[in-house]
Write a structure and sequence with these properties.
Structural class: alpha+beta
Number of helices: 9
Order of helices and strands: HHEEEHEHHEHEEHHH
Number of strands: 7
Shape: globular
Radius of gyration: 18 Å
Length: 257
C-alpha cells in the first residue's frame, strides 16, 4: 500500500466512527463478490457497533459488493422508526431483515445474508438438512436451523419472524427455505468464515447427491466432536480475513477508503 493511500485511509478513519469494522466489512463484501456468492445488488451484510446491538453498519441501498468501500457503509439504528423516511435510506428488505435481527437478537453481532448458488439449491430441496459427510458439513452439525415458512420478501414482519428462529446462541446458520442462507457471528471475520464454509459444505453435499451413490455419513458423535474442534480451533477466522485483506492491499484495492 502506498504512503499516499495510507495517509488517505488514515484521514478517513479519523473522520468516521468504527473505522476498522468498516474496513473488515468492505473486505468481506469484495471477497464475497469475487467468489460469486452475491446476487447482483440484492444481498446484505450488517455489523452491530454498540453494546445492545441496535446500532449497526450496513451496505448502501443496491450498491454492488464489488464496489463497496469502508466509507460507503451506512450507520443505522434498529430502534429508529424514521430510518426509512430519510434520504439515503437502506434497502427496505435489508432494513426489515437485518434491523429485526439486531433489535431482537443482540448476540447476533454480525449478520450476512446471500443467495449463493449451492446454499440456495440446498434451500430449494424439500429436505434442506445438511448431513455430516465431510469435515466442512460436520462444521454445521446441530448448529443450523431450517426456515420452512418463507413468506415473501423480507420486509419488517418477515424479518421479525426470521429473528425468532435465531434466539438460541448455538444456532448461527439459517437455511432459508426457498430463499438462501443467513449466518450470524461475533465479528466480521467469524461470520464471513462461517458463510464461506457453509457454501463449500453445501457444494460438497449437492455434488455428492449428483453422483447418485450412497452417502458416507458420519456418526452423530464424530460429527459433534468435529464441529466442536473446529469451533475451538485458534484464530482461523481472523487469519482468513487478514489474508484476504492482505491480498486486496497487494492488488491496490480501494476497499479500505
Amino acid at each position: 500500500m502506498s504512503q499516499t493511500h495510507l495517509e488517505m485511509t488514515s484521514d478517513m478513519g479519523a473522520n468516521l466512527d468504527h473505522w476498522q469494522q468498516r474496513v473488515d466489512m468492505a473486505a468481506a463484501f469484495r471477497w464475497t463478490a469475487r467468489l460469486n456468492m452475491h446476487e447482483a445488488v440484492a444481498n446484505h451484510f450488517s455489523l452491530a457497533v454498540n453494546d445492545t446491538g441496535s446500532q449497526f453498519l450496513m451496505n448502501p441501498n443496491q450498491m454492488h459488493f464489488a464496489r463497496i468501500k469502508a466509507s460507503d457503509l451506512l450507520l443505522l439504528d434498529a430502534e429508529d422508526k424514521s430510518t426509512m423516511d430519510r434520504p439515503g435510506a437502506p434497502d427496505p428488505t435489508a432494513w426489515g431483515l437485518h434491523g429485526s435481527i439486531h433489535r431482537l437478537c443482540p448476540h447476533a453481532r454480525c449478520v450476512m445474508h446471500v443467495h449463493s448458488i449451492h446454499a440456495t439449491v440446498l434451500a430449494a430441496l424439500a429436505d434442506s438438512s445438511l448431513p455430516p459427510i465431510d469435515q466442512n458439513t460436520a462444521t454445521f452439525f446441530n448448529r443450523y436451523v431450517i426456515d420452512d415458512g418463507y413468506g415473501g420478501l423480507a420486509f419488517e414482519d418477515e424479518g421479525a419472524r426470521c429473528a425468532t428462529m435465531l434466539t438460541d446462541p448455538k444456532v448461527k446458520t439459517m437455511i432459508m427455505g426457498n430463499h438462501g442462507v443467513l449466518v450470524i457471528g461475533d465479528s466480521v471475520a467469524d461470520t464471513f468464515n462461517r458463510l464461506y464454509y457453509f457454501e463449500r459444505a453445501a457444494e460438497t453435499y449437492i455434488r455428492a447427491l449428483q453422483t447418485g451413490q450412497k452417502l458416507r455419513i458420519l456418526s452423530d458423535e464424530i460429527a459433534e466432536k468435529t464441529a466442536q474442534e473446529l469451533e475451538d480451533y485458534p484464530d482461523q477466522s481472523e487469519r482468513h480475513l487478514s489474508e484476504l485483506k492482505a491480498m486486496l492491499d497487494e492488488e491496490g484495492s480501494n476497499y479500505a477508503s
